[in-house]
Amino acid sequence: xxxxxxxxxxxxxxxxxxxxxxxxxxxxxxxxxxxxxxxxxxxxxxxxxxxxxxxxxxxxxxxxxxxxxxxxxxxxxxxxxxxxxxxxxxxxxxxxxxxxxxxxxxxxxxxxxxxxxxxxxxxxxxxxxxxxxxxxxxxxxxxxxxxxxxxxxxxxxxxxxxxxxxxxxxxxxxxxxxxxxxxx
Length: 184
Fold this sequence. Notes:
The chain is α/β, with parallel strands linked by helices and 184 residues long.
């Protein structure tokens, strides 16, 4: 099995974001066949097609970092039953101009968490709708939404062995999913 490079997009900008903690734990438990790197999205200027004639440097840098990757891992909270605006903006920046998406045909997976009981279920599934349009084959199973995340970390350390086992299973499944897809 070859090593595949995976872009990790975290949909929260909060300093002590549970989603960033989750993303880091997913990176930690991932099998050696995946090399994961968080690509920051907070500095991306809001997408405006009028800027495509001279795209902002942040757009160019983001597109250039995602383009050569072999897959995508989205880790998102839920805002108003959807994904946060910063994540939607990153998707818009990466998928434009039309016909030049940096996401197309890259295998993907979605993980979501929140302190609430539903674990950002709405954002997880709303994001999956966008991935269909983006031609990102999203891993169908296992799904991963984690409620009560605020009780599962002490600082940046995951304290739940059962969650660690679940995250390891998720990442092993994702590695298999990525290997099934043709290299981009």
